[in-house]
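Protein modeling request. Please complete all fields; requests missing the sequence field cannot be processed.
Requester role: graduate student
Desired output: 3D structure, token encoding
Chains: 1
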Amino acid sequence: MERLDSVKNPLIQRLRALKTAEGREAEGLFLVEGEKLMREAAGLLSPAAALFEEGADFGDLPELLRAKGARSLTVPRRILEAVCDTKTPQGACAAFSPPEPLDLEHPPLRIVALDGVQDPGNLGTIWRTADAAGFQALVAGPGCAEALSPKVQRAAMGSGFRVPLAKVDDLAAWLSGLAKSGYAVVATSLDGEPFYERAKLPDKFALVIGSEARGISPEVSNSATVSLKLPMRGGAQSLNASVAAGIMMYELCRNLPE
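Delivered output (258 residues):
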């Protein structure tokens, strides 16, 4: 395998740029760290370049990525530390082309809509749980964490490669369009109906998750066709956004066919 040992190498500089949203947009790539996620991404996305710590054994992964068109190189650990977002890199990373975004003109049956979910860990966890529960896409309005950031993708644990996401400039308007086409738009509200006593939803629905600090915005709430509230039987007045999302996603999909 080719070896690089200078942080000033142009390729290394390009990979370092992927730490920022501006760099990811300029390069049209995002960074995936660690052997497990790299293997998962390799089965779904197009790799551009991969770095492996010299002396470490990653089996057939370097050749697998080379066969898919990537430039695979060995590097000293200090270069991985310069390129990777994590403080303690897992010994390998690779740049991939982003997944295809959701086709907003032809949305699937079950969607999670994100209204200002700013915490990368929450967004990634919601993405991963949506994948597990049976949702088929995410739509992010303004103010959400950047989907291709390393923290989001680490929390998503590969679901970001499988479940498409699209950004919209006006989430309320987009959800209103969904409602007009027969979707239930489900939002949480303190004045909503009890979640576990809700009426049956149609096959097509979007679940709205609001921001950690402010919840769902009034504009987006006005687009909802169904308002529900989770029970709070103890002293807590609210739940973490990803926890509340997980409870509702699994329950809404509970009776769907496998």
